[in-house]
Specification:
With 188 residues, the protein is an all-alpha fold. The chain has one domain. The protein contains 9 helices and no strands.
Length: 188
């Protein structure tokens, strides 16, 4: 699993213990729907209509540049992890909307689940194909809930403000790198 926008957000929310269960559930549900659609053959739609990928690439890049800028700005005002003050610091609505944006505006979600996993699933026949999809969905659930709840073990480290500074700058770098990678094919 690569650390992308979605994983970085899940990790940060898990560290803050801010709506980590609904965020992990939403990420898992989105992945489950996309994996199921990919195994069912929907990835051919993206290949047939490249404008879908173009729209997602530009929208996703814009979203990731803004999200990365917010993380960079936050890195200059680091705070320590104080679980009493950070729980519920962000509304559930804001967390859900950010999760939806990070997930659905990311073309890699569609390429990885619909196209890549969909393509891999074609090597399976009969009842093996749904089992492959179920295994991929289960792995996604384990990943997101493990990341969300595993972040709590890192919380002692994030009692130091400098750790948040480094995490926010790393998140900025990841977001800007992914956004740049999304736009790179259009610059050539």
């Amino acid at each position: 699993m690569a650390v992308g926008a979605q994983n970085a957000f899940v990790l940060k929310q898990g560290l803050k213990r801010s709506h980590s269960l609904p965020i992990a559930a939403l990420c898992s549900l989105i992945d489950a729907l996309m994996i199921t659609a990919g195994v069912a053959g929907l990835g051919h739609l993206i290949i047939a209509f490249p404008v879908i990928k173009d729209i997602a690439s530009f929208g996703g890049a814009l979203f990731l540049f803004v999200y990365g800028s917010r993380a960079l700005r936050s890195s200059f005002h680091p705070q320590s992890l104080d679980s009493e003050s950070t729980i519920g610091a962000e509304t559930l609505k804001a967390a859900v909307l950010t999760t939806l944006g990070i997930s659905l505006l990311n073309p890699h979600l569609y390429l990885d689940t619909l196209v890549l996993l969909g393509s891999i699933s074609t090597q399976f026949e009969g009842s093996d194909k749904p089992w492959f999809g179920a295994g991929a969905v289960l792995a996604s659930f384990v990943w997101f809930f493990g990341l969300s709840f595993g972040a709590r073990y890192l919380s002692p480290l994030f009692k130091r403000p400098k750790a948040w500074c480094y995490l926010d700058r790393l998140i900025c770098l990841i977001m800007w790198s992914i956004a740049s990678a999304l736009l790179w094919p259009y610059l050539n």
